[in-house]
Design brief:
- With about 150 residues, the protein is mainly α.
- It has a domain at about 25-115: Multidrug-efflux Transporter Regulator, Chain: A, Domain 2 (Orthogonal Bundle).
- About 45% of the residues lie in helices and about 5% in strands.
- It contains four helices and two strands.
- The protein has helices at about 25-30, 35-45, 60-75, 80-115; strands at about 50, 55-60.
- Strand 1 (about 50) and strand 2 (about 55-60) form a beta hairpin.
- Helix 1 (about 25-30) crosses helix 3 (about 60-75).
- The longest helix has about 35 residues, at about 80-115.
- Mean pLDDT is about 85; it is low at about 1-10.
């Protein structure tokens, strides 16, 4: 199998936090939760572990971090629906930050492209050949105005 790269952590590489590599017992130990709690959180939609071909759960480092966050929030007295709302809001913030970064990069690229394009040179229009008039001064002038009827 020359040329084929293998790794203990899978195709994502050894340090990919999204690589689902931990079995449920290891994930439970790392998160400080009971394996049944992990299954419950999965049923509730708070966590979505990866699955093996045989259906076994595999948790990533990101999943472990999320489980730790859930444990911290619930231990501080926040109900599970509050935890769900907090996690949803955090995901929304992350998505908005990523979108903002994309838009900032697009804006900078557009600005750079505009600065790279030379300004068009237009022939002078007849309007440009009008005589220069002296500005009139209105200092000290009185203007009478009557309301139209």
């Amino acid at each position: 199998m020359a040329g084929r790269r293998t790794s203990a952590a899978g195709p994502h590489g050894p340090h990919d936090p999204a690589a689902a590599v931990f079995v449920i017992s290891v994930a439970a130990e790392l998160s400080g939760l009971h394996p049944q709690t992990l299954r419950t959180y999965e049923r509730m939609g708070l966590i979505t572990p990866g699955r093996t071909g045989g259906g076994g759960r595999r948790y990533s480092s990101q999943d472990i971090d999320r489980l730790r966050t859930i444990a911290q929030l619930t231990s501080s007295g926040i109900g599970i629906e509050g935890v769900r709302r907090i996690l949803d809001l955090e995901n929304t913030v992350l998505a908005l930050r990523a979108r903002n970064e994309e838009l900032q990069a697009e804006l900078e690229a557009t600005r750079a492209a505009l600065h790279a394009v030379p300004a068009p040179t237009l022939p002078p229009s007849p309007r440009d050949r009008l005589p220069v008039l002296r500005p009139t001064t209105t200092a000290g002038s009185i203007v009478v105005w009557r309301r139209p009827r």
